[in-house]
Amino acid sequence: MIELHDLTKRYGKTLAVDRLSFKVPQGVVTGFLGPNGAGKSTTMRMILDLDRPTGGRVTIDGKRYGQLSEPLKYIGALLEAKAVHPGRTARDHLLWLAQSNRIPERRVDEALGLVGLTPVARKRARGFSLGMGQRLGIACALLGDPEIVMFDEPVNGLDPEGILWIRNLMKRLAAEGRTVFVSSHLMSEMAVTADHLVVIGRGRLLADLPMAEFIRRNSRSAVRLRTPQPERLLDALAGAGVRHEAGPTGSVEVVDGDLAALGELAAANGVVLHELSPQQASLEEAFMQMTADAVEYHAGDGPGRDAAGAPGVWGADWKGGAAGQPAARGTEEN
Amino acid sequence: MASFPAVLRSEWTKIRSVRSTIWTLALTFVVTLGVGALLSLLTNNNFEEFRSDNTPFDATGTAFSGILLGELAIIVFGVLAIGNEYSSGMIRVTLAAVPQRGTLLTGKAVVLGGLALAVSLVTAFLTFFTGQALLGDHSTSLGEPNVLRAVFGAALYLTMLCLFSAGVTTMLHNQTLALGVLVPFFFLLSPILSAVPGAKTVAHYFPDYAGSRMLLVYEQNGQPYGPWAGFLICLAWTVAALAGGALVLKNRDA
Ligand SMILES: Nc1ncnc2c1ncn2[C@@H]1O[C@H](COP(=O)(O)OP(=O)(O)OP(=O)(O)O)[C@@H](O)[C@H]1O
Ligand SMILES: [Mg+2]
Q1: Which of A113, A179, A294, B78 could disulfide-link A148, Cβ–Cβ 3.0 to 4.6 Å?
Q2: Between chains, do B253 and A51 touch, taking CB under 8 Å as contact?
Q3: pTM, whole model, 2 decimals?
Q4: Which residues of chain B does A87 touch, with a Cβ-Cβ cutoff of 8 Å?
């Protein structure tokens, strides 16, 4: 399990990561989401002890990364796609990596097979496409058969087939009981892969909750009605005890409304409808809303207004089951 | 903790699996031997013209005339062996695998130094024998005073310059920059300063001048120190460069 405690990183004047505390739950895919420059890569580099934190600490199974003996057997990571000497073959690249952690040589061929690079095992990395480079990086991450895998924006620049492959790979790894920690700046991508979600903006924790919870809270569905006879419609709705709110351009919206029932209600009351349509707020919008607020929060210096508008309750119901998980950002240690 | 033999094996695989290793080391050998052979042949054929003063003739030094160029090749080898990790971004993969940075650099230095020493020894002895064969009547032999030491000195000289360059590259963590600093240093600054009366004394303590003292067979006039002091000064530079590299590597974000 990866645990971050008040992890902070400052580059000169840039506060890249700001007192970040969360745990990456075991055995599931955790999406690490944030807009460009949020500090995702910096956080991942600190997890691997590549960049030294300005403050706070991060542990893997309770140990600092540098204390792990043969770390590739605990945690495998893909940070950059083409971090390979262009003149070295794929197999030799995996071989030196395996030898450094006393991983048996047969794992090299297994890992190549796992990512489908066996046919080009003895080809120099110079000629590899972005997708092949990505697969080689993933083979490196899987080489030591680690409990934890960490990918930094693995689908960046990949074609749809490559994206699908990575998506399925991550699900498979989690199904095998591994912990998958994957960064992205696309909520739509995470919505289909991640079981858990950690959102950061400007280096700060914005949300830490199960994906299902996020979807439940943010995928507001509503029925939109538009009519030339608004009074009649409102009377009819009031008469049936249906709660409603004002929609855009004079329309009326009923949250979680039933399309058929509302149509019938309008007909029964002789209301002419110009529109009767289901509305779905996108997760991407919810995510942008959340991170935009983070920017606002940093720009001004008002009190810690929760990005989601629900201070401290993010994932509260789920938290009962998994004790010790911090809820939303800003909540100091308890 | 990372196992040191495992780090050595891994670094050995790295170094043997890129072509630049073969090229630079082959070039070290060919250039040192080739230029030495050529000058030995020329000297033998034109001995009287070449010899004007009455200092003793240094047959060993003549055979090693090409070492200045061989040195360039082995410096490039040292720079690339370290620098390609930075240019490719592989250094992060390496450090994630071996987070004990001191152990890592030690492993690299041992593998790099071991390979450089092996190639340098072969180069030094073959260069010596080839040179002597071509010098005919003017040749010397390993049995003559100081000659064997000078041949070993040539090998150590190349090895230490290689490790010095590796250390400097680790400090600069950029191979282009390292080449841009080292090549002008050894091939412009050092020779120019050695010729300037005032700056001479400073240049005499540079690693290349100091190291090249190990090749001397005869006492020369105006020589600031002998071969053993030269060895120690060159060694000190090498150790300092590697220690500086370790310091930078340990404290820097990768
Ligand atoms: N080595 C560095 N030196 C100086 N500033 C840095 C360094 N690395 C990152 N930063 C800064 O820290 C902030 C966070 O960057 P980081 O790369 O971690 O973001 P990210 O979430 O990974 O973004 P992206 O989605 O673009 O990959 C940025 O403002 C970036 O400019
Ligand atoms: Mg990034």
Answers
A1: A179
A2: yes
A3: 0.85
A4: 18-20
